[in-house]
Amino acid sequence: MKPFLFLGVRPEDGPADDEYAAVLRCTGLDESTMRRVRLEAAPLRDVDLDDWSGIVLGGGPFCVSDPEPTKSAVQRRVEADLARLLDAVVPADVPFLGACYGIGTLGRHQGGVVDGQHAEPVGAVTVELTAQGVADPVLGAGPATFQAFVGHKESLSVLPPHAVLLATSAGAPVQAFRVGRNVYATQFHPELDVAGLETRVDAYRFDGYFDPEEAEDVVAAARRSGVHTVPPVLRAFVERHVRPRDHGRSRTVIPGNGIGVARG
């Protein structure tokens, strides 16, 4: 099979490594079949879309709706790299799934409105699939209503006009959407369990997601939430989009200006 490409943006090694490990567990893949590139570490370069079965974008502390003057040079570069990638991914309908930060990235790229109107505190929420979500081969792989962990300062307040709404929650009207047949984004974290949430609470306790003095309460509430498993979204995405190796096909190469991406 052709491997999948995982794009991480977390600057902190602990949460970054834990997120990647969680994605491997959820997909059933290993480091040879879900290869990681950390976008915050160096510029992205030369992604040949034909080398990959699909692309997964993880979450992180960046917010695309931050005022431009407040964004670091790294954040601006990451956003430019992802915009260039999506410029090719979306028209070609290349399998893509972005989680949390990914929904803002894809949503803004596709003409949606991303702002702070529907931020959700760190913790468990009830996610409800729409009729289109129930029928979707990726979101519909699990139950129509489920609990998942969230924690975000921004979200989509207006869906891109051509996108399909797949899931919602009481606090955020857009919990998942799809563009075309194969390009997805979720507001909830499809990879996150209680242990992973604890890791992120420790790492981001001073990043404004909650009062630092309430960190232990946030973790305790997560433990009481009853969220013991993650939704099968990542596994369904991977199983749907596995591609065999082939030869002689036309190539779609996205040029970059930094380190290369390991080939499939």
From TrEMBL:
It comes from Cellulomonas wangleii. Residues 48-192 form the Glutamine amidotransferase domain. Keywords: Glutamine amidotransferase. This is Glutamine amidotransferase. PANTHER family: GLUTAMINE AMIDOTRANSFERASE YLR126C-RELATED. InterPro entries: ChyE-like (IPR044992), Class_I_gatase-like (IPR029062), GATASE (IPR017926). The keyword Oxidoreductase does not apply. Transmembrane segments: none annotated. Pfam families: GATase. The keyword Kinase does not apply.
